[in-house]
Amino acid sequence: MEYKEYGIARRYAEQLATQMRKGLLSYLVLIITRKPANPSDIIRRLHEAGTTVVEGTIYPLLLRLQRDGLLRHEWRDSSGGPPRKFYTATELGIAVTAELKKEMRLLTKTISNLEKEEKK
């Protein structure tokens, strides 16, 4: 494969990976917010788990999940500054997380089966 073709393939793969990460990020945030978490905690936990995310991505996502009824927030006093917003998954958010967990298992199984077939 020529370098030029590889470059096109790499860019396309990056676009697809970005789309996959966007969908997965909602699921990951719902997992994290089963317990109250503020945006800094969410970003830190995602980084620790190996996913890079920035504030400019997380805040709109939190707002969307809250608007959709999957998260709620409460203000808590902070020892070193102004009150902070903590997000927690709602009952609907927990139910959606459970459904997404089933879907993730199915997708993982499908990928594994296809990779096994490819090796034959």
Keywords:
120 residues; alpha+beta; 4 helices; 2 strands
Count of distinct strands: 2
Number of helices: 4
The gross shape turns out to be globular
Mean pLDDT: 92
Class by SSE composition:
alpha+beta
Kindly, what is the distance between the CA atoms of the first and last residues, rounded to a whole number of angstroms?
24 Å
Major β-sheet strand ordering: 1-2
- The helix-strand sequence is HHHEEH
The major β-sheet equals: 2 strands, antiparallel
Can you give me a brief rundown of this structure?
This protein has 120 residues and is an alpha+beta fold. 69% of the residues lie in helices and 14% in strands.
Write the layout of secondary structure elements.
Elements (H helix, E strand, L loop, with lengths): L2 H30 L6 H11 L5 H13 L3 E8 L2 E9 L1 H29 L1
Antiparallel strand pairs: 1-2
Helix pairs in contact: 2-3
Describe the structure.
The mean pLDDT is 92. The chain contains 4 helices and 2 strands. Helix 2 (39-49) crosses helix 3. The longest helix has 30 residues, at 3-32. By secondary structure, it is an alpha+beta fold. The radius of gyration is 18 Å and the shape is globular. It has a two-stranded antiparallel ribbon with strand order 1-2.
